[in-house]
Amino acid sequence: MAFTAGELANIANAALDFYIKRQPFLQTIQDKPLLDAMVSAKKTFPGGKGNVDLPVKGDYTSQMVGYTHDDTVTYANPANIKRVFYPWKEEHCGIVITGTELKINGTSVTDSTTGENTTNHDQAEMTRLVNLLEDKLEDMGEGTSRSLNGQLWGDGTADPKAIAGVKAFITTTPSVGLTGGLDRRTVTWWRNRAPAAIQADLSDQTLTKTLRAEVRQLRRYGGRPSLLLAGSGFLADLEAEVFEKGVYTQTGFVNNGKNDIGMSDISMRGVGTFKYDPTLDDLAQTRYCYFIDPKHLYLEAMDDEWMKQHAPARPENKYVYYRAVTLTGVVVADQLNCHGVYQSIAAVP
Predict the structure, then answer these.
(1) Which of 17, 194, 196, 285 has the fewest CB atoms within 10 Å, i.e. is most exposed?
(2) Please, are residues 129 and 15 in contact by the beta-carbon 8 Å criterion?
(3) What is the end-to-end Cα distance of the chain in Å, rounded?
(4) How far apart are CA 291 and CA 166, in angstroms?
(5) Which of 87, 37, 165 is CA-nearest to residue 328?
(6) Contact 242, 344 (CB under 8 A)
(7) By C-alpha distance, which of 215, 174, 179 is closest to 338?
(8) Are 43 and 299 in contact (CB under 8 A)?
(9) Is 86:51 a contact under the CB 8 Å cutoff?
């Protein structure tokens, strides 16, 4: 089969005269704090029929009542356990490279079945300006990272076969819809916090005061939100209020005796440290902030099925080589009232 225009362009960009001899300058890789936090703290599950199933409870029947002498008393039979379930998902990312592309790039495959081993031609560096195989593998790595990060920020509707992320659990309309099979409309304790948009006010400190009040509510039932991810607009509104009531010293910016603003993060006493997540800007949520309790909203991976590497054998009638990674996992929540989503409105000058 002839090369496609894209393949020819890729080979030309990797092998001809007028390019700097190094791997490509990476222009669009950005931080992914949600992905980093969830993957580093992921749990495992052993498998099953297709769901991760958990018990949750928010209603109580038993109660103390007064009595005297021979008053008749009653006995309760509590039956308040509910179950939530989340279907696990299988995902794949793979690349293909032809033997011809590798030869043009100064590389030969020594294991012709799977392409497991390669050798470099003598003086390959004279014509190879970019290691094409390394570039394709780097593309697969960053592509996997980007797509998984996007899914972890999503609500699962974009691709029903992919992992449903944070927005499936922390929503701007918490009294609507099903989560884990429970109806948020009727199960009032199965909701995240989502107050109306908050107007920043440099004088009254409305945004910072509201967030401190919200933290009390998020901790009311044992929650401890420690992952505070915000868009750039939200952080700008927060900085404006913090700056208004602070002073500059020789050692930095001080607010109420505490350093509140660093190079990129803002710390609020009693609230936590806000981290900038560029993905929120990409999602047109620049003025949003998500408060997440990682103990109650987390990623679970199936045992031995996380970032599993594959090198499939090539077809007998084609000299093409494949590489892939697969994963099996699911995002799980066992409590929702310890998470919140907040939107800011810029202060009027």
Answers:
(1) 17
(2) yes
(3) 64
(4) 11
(5) 87
(6) no
(7) 215
(8) yes
(9) yes
In this structure, which amino acid lies at residue 50?
G
Exposure on the CB side of residue 111, measured as CA atoms within 13 A: 11
Residue environment code for 97-116, b if the CB has 16+ CB neighbours within 10 A, otherwise e: bbbebbebbbbebeeeeebe
Look up residue 233 and give its two tokens: 């607009």
Name the residue among 230, 221, 204 with its Cα closest to residue 291. 230
Cα–Cα distance, 295 to 226 (Å, whole number) = 9
Check: CB of residue 267 under 8 Å from CB of residue 258. Answer: yes
CA distances from 177 to 38, 115, 172, 190 (A): 24, 48, 11, 11
Answer whether 44's CB lies under 8 Å from 300's CB.
yes
**DSSP codes of every residue in 141-161:** HHHHHHHHHHHHHS-S-S-TT
- Token duo for residue 210: 């509201």
CB within 8 A of 316, min separation 6: which ones?
A: none
pLDDT tens for the chain, 349 residues: list them: 555 667 656 655 555 444 444 455 556 578 899 999 999 999 999 977 789 999 999 999 999 999 999 999 999 999 999 999 999 999 999 988 888 877 776 667 666 555 455 565 555 554 444 567 777 878 888 888 999 999 999 999 999 999 999 999 999 999 999 999 999 999 999 999 999 999 999 999 999 999 999 999 999 999 999 999 999 999 999 999 888 765 444 455 555 555 455 545 788 888 999 999 999 999 999 999 999 999 999 999 999 999 998 888 888 888 888 888 899 999 999 999 999 999 999 987 6
DSSP letter at 261? B
Q: Which helix (H) or strand (E) holds 123?
A: none
- Which residues, in sequence order, are bridge partners of residue 345? 199
Helices in the chain by DSSP H: which ranges? 5-15, 33-40, 99-104, 132-153, 206-218, 232-244, 278-282
Question: What pLDDT is recorded for position 249?
Answer: 43
How far is it, in rounded angstroms, from Cα 215 to Cα 210? 9
